[in-house]
Structure formats: structure tokens, C-alpha cells
Amino acid sequence: MKRAGFTTVWLPVALLLPQLMIIAIFFYWPAAWAVQSSFYLQDPFGFGSTFVGLENYTDLMTNVEYAKVARFTVIYTVLVTFFSLALALLLAVKADTVIRGAKSYRTLLMWVYAIAPPVAGFMGLMFFDQRNGPLTEMFQAFGWEFRLGADFNSTATAMVIVAVWKQIPVNFIFFLSGLQSIPKAVREAALIDNRSATGRFWDVTFPLLAPTAFFLLIINITYALFDTFGIVDTLVRSEPGNNPVTLVYKVFVDGFRGNDLGGSSAQSVILMILVLVLTVFQFRLIERRIHYT
Amino acid sequence: MADITQSGDVFSATPVRRRPRIKLRHIGDHAILVAGALLMVFPIVLVLMTTSFEDADIVKNGLQFGFEGQMLENFEAAMFEASGFTKTITGTRMLMNSMILGLGFAIGKIVISMMAAYAIVYFRLRFATFAFWIIFTTLLLPLEVRILPSYEAIQSMGLANTYTGLIVPLIASATGTFFFRQFFRSIPEELVEAARIDGAGPVKFFIDILVPLSRTMIAAIFIIMFVYGWNQYLWPTLITTDEGMFTLVRGIKQIVQVLSQTGAMIPEYGKALALSLIAMIPPVLIVIFFQSWFVKGLTESDK
After folding, report:
1. C-alpha–C-alpha distance, residues A41 and B56, integer Å
2. Is the CB of residue B290 less than 8 Å from the CB of residue B90?
3. Are B51 and B74 spatial neighbours (Cβ–Cβ below 8 Å)?
């Protein structure tokens, strides 16, 4: 709040009202509703519901299917995060060193940001097509019977590749702006101390980039968990079957197709807690980030 | 001696020289960057090339490298030919819906969050901090997590298949408010003091001073929000069941379902691929042309 702020009362209230109303109706109410219905068992025909306490949660914990989805989500998130960060870092470091063509490279490497995940997923369907997808043929040339939609590992691989492809631009942009904010004096000092470019990178540049990398780590985990919904949905052609799906996708399938309100809500609440933990973590890191720079 | 040669190296490494030449050791760097650029661009080029082939060809051979004469027809069909189960939806219609969603979301979000941020930063309000935290908490939960209850809420209000139902729930998050709050706080205190001495009221100060001052910030956040709104998938999928309300990105789901059906007809792959390209053109163009604003918006709003 500014010291010399205005003292009118009705105006700020009127200014805040639209935002607060939208949030109350479309955020707090639904969130509370999800928490509440996670303690109830819904009658499948819509005739009321019974309070079952924590049963929906204990059911989930012992559910083999849920454990499988959770395990896949963890592996998927780790792979997507690792590869998209590593590739983007490599490209950002190179884009930062070259002088000629730097701008063109920047444009070419960032524009995929604007492509919607399901559009990327649809293109993935073409590239991994069972009969004539170019990448399917490539995998087959290496002796792998790649079958998208029929074989668990094939579908999982396709999901990871499309999700990484789609996420490289964001990481690239953040890494590049992180690299460019490293003061020239620091770089020159490093150049005097250490002649090997690789040595300089790991001893000087990487530690200075660490805050950006930590921050991106959270962004990427959130991306893999939530924003890849469109990729998953298109690559499995909306038919989960035996295909790998993520936790968010399962919330959607159980809630809208399976009509399991209680179970789906309990899954939502678990994800909410997960996001809360991630966000708290993120803000602690941002505080550290400010100290660094 | 060694020190002198090394410091000579330092000076040649600084980009002060007017005409940088590609050095031998930079060839490896360029090779990696070219490979990266190809990785990002080639898939789209291949899809674009494939739209120039006939459907039967695409069905048989998949994605194609080369050029045939079908591109115009395929794009024309994608834009103007009615499709879907009810034959009411064309590419033009979906493009319009996507525009409404992208623009409505971006503008709505900017207006609402600027107002809220202004109230929080510039007024001596007893519950300003409390209001900030209420708004701020929404950063914690993405829509995907509370998708089912949000859907129920929209249904019970009768807002399914309306633009309001499509746009407003997406606005219920604090990213914009947080962003403008940070920016307003960075504006010097003297500005509002001077304005008050000159007799400007809060409304006049906001419209005549603060909004013009925030132009760059508004542009940056607009680009991010437009792309975000345009690319929404899950929410439009749930809330629009009427084909006349489909957006281009929502239409992708329909395309995938139609192409997956095994019928007697040859699936219209050319048209489908053309539509997927149309779905990416507006946000991609915006990101490329307003690159510096876009980068600014992204790196400063995502914190």
C-alpha cells in the first residue's frame, strides 16, 4: 500500500468487487465443494449421498489402478522435466555464446510456445501413427515394435516426446534471460581464471543460473502434471483403456465418465495438496532467488 | 606473459567489434542451434507440406515431404466447409469463437486485475491485505484440479454453451492481479503525491496517469493471456457441447474422434491437418511479432 494512498472507501471496494465475486463463485465455492464431496459417497442414480468419512481416500490408497497411474505420473513428470530442462539449457547456453544470428535462433526456438498442447498432441498422432508415422518407422528401424495406443511403453514414449517438445521454448526463454542477466564483469573475471569453456560453465555460470533452474523445476513439474492434459487426451484418442494416463486425466475420467463423484473429488483434493506443497516450496525459492541477484 | 595473452583473449571475446565473424570454435555451437531450430520447425513444415496432398495419399503414406496441388483446396475446406455431426460448424466459425475466447479472456483478465491491483496498492483500505491474500490463494490451484465442481457450478447457473460460461471461470485466478500489483508498487510514490497536489482524484489518476504508464505492461500481459485463452482445451471441451460454440482447439478433439472412426469414407486428413495449422497461426504470429513484449510478459508474470 502506498503511503500517500487515497482515502476514499467506496471506490476500492467497487474496484475489488468483480474480482472477488468471480473468485468466490468460480474458485472458493468449487474448491470447498470438492473437499466436501470427497467425504461423501454419491448414489450413481443421483438420489442423494451418504457421508462416508475418509473412505474415498482409503479406497484410493489401496486402489491398484490409482497406484499405477500415480507411478506413471511420477516417472512421466521426472522425464519431461529433465529432458525439457536439459535440452533448453544446452540451447540457451549456445544461443548466448553466438553473436551472429542470435536473434533468428531465439525466434525459431521460442515460437512453439504458442502452440496448444492438444494441437501438438494431434501432430504427435500423425508422427507416431501405427502404420506410417515417420517416428514409428524410425523406432522400428531400431528394432522396436512401436505401437501407439496399443502398447503402454510406446504411448508413454510418445507422450514424453511431445510434452518435452512443447515445453522446450518456455525453459529456453527463462534460461536465456537468466544467462543474459549475468553481469559482464563476472564473465570476464571467469574468463581470466578458467580457460576451459566447460569448466567456466560448471564453476561460474551454472551456480548463477541455479535460482532460475529451481524456479523452472517447479514450473515444469506443474506443466507435466496439469498442462499436458491436452497432449494425453489426444494421444490416447480420448480412450484411456490400457494406455498410460496422468493423475489429472484420471480425475477427469472418473468424474465425468465414471460418475464417481466422491472418488474423483478425493483425487482432486490430493492434487490440491500436492499443488499447495509445490507452491509453498516455490515461494521459498523465489525468496532465495531475490537474495541471489 | 601468460596473463597478457589471456587478457588479450578477454578483449576479443567482448562483442564490441562491429563485424563479428563466425569462428571455428563457434561452428559446433551453430550446429547445435541449427539442430534445435530444426527440431522445433521441421514438424510443422512437414504438416504444412502434407496439407498439399490428397486425402487418399495421406491415409496411405502418412506425413509427406514434398509439394502437391491440394493445399488451397484443403485450407478452403477447413475454413468454409461445414462439418461435425450437425453440419453447423465451419473453420471460420471456430476461428471466431477462438478469437472471442482469446480476446475476451485477455481483456477481461486485464481489466479486472488492474482494477483490483489498483484498489490494493493505492488505497488505505483496512482489508486490503486480507483481500490480497484471498485473491492470491487462487494462484495455488489450477482449474484442472477443481474442474468437476466448476463444471457443476456453471451447469447449475445455466451458463453451459455460452461465452460467459466459457470465459469468466478462467478469469478466476490471480496471475494478472499479482503482476499489476508488483508493477504498481514499483512506481515512485511521488507520482501519486504530485497528482493529489494538482487536485487529481483517484479515478482521474488511474485513467490519466496509471493506465498510460502501464502500457508496456498491459501489452506484455495481453500477449501471454491471449495465447493462454486461445489454447484452452479442457474447459471448452466440458462447457461447450453445442458445435456452434466450438473453438479451434476444442475442435481438435472432434477431429481426432472423427479420424479414429473406421468408416467407408476416406478420412479427411488434409482438412484436419489444415485446421490444426489454422489453430496455431494467430497465437504463433502474435508471439513472433511481439517477441520482446512476449518475453517480458512471460519472464515477469510467471514469478
Report:
1. 51
2. no
3. yes
Which neighbouring-strand residues pair with A51? A40
Q: Which residues contact B104 (CB under 8 A, 6 or more apart)?
A: B163, B166, B167, B229
CA A258 to chain centre: 25
Chain-chain contact of A100 with B20 (C-beta, under 8 angstroms)? yes
* Whether B249 and A116 lie within 8 Å, measured CB to CB: yes
Give the number of beta-carbon pairs within 8 Å between A and B.
308
Low-confidence ranges of chain A (pLDDT < 70): 1-4, 43-47, 285-293
Residue B277 binned pLDDT confidence (cut-offs 50, 70, 90)? very high
C-alpha cell at A107: 525466434
Could you report the predicted ipTM of this complex, rounded to two decimals? 0.88
Facing residue for A119 by CB, picked from B116, B118, B279? B279
Side chain identity, residue A276: L
Nearest to B247 by CA among B146, B170, B300: B170
Nearest residue in A to B224, CA atom: A114
Beta bridge partners, B89, equal: B83
Q: Is A37 on the interface with B (CB under 8 A)?
A: yes
Reference B136, options B108, B116, B118; nearest CA is B116
Report d(CA A210, CA B10) in Å as an integer. Answer: 25
pTM: 0.88
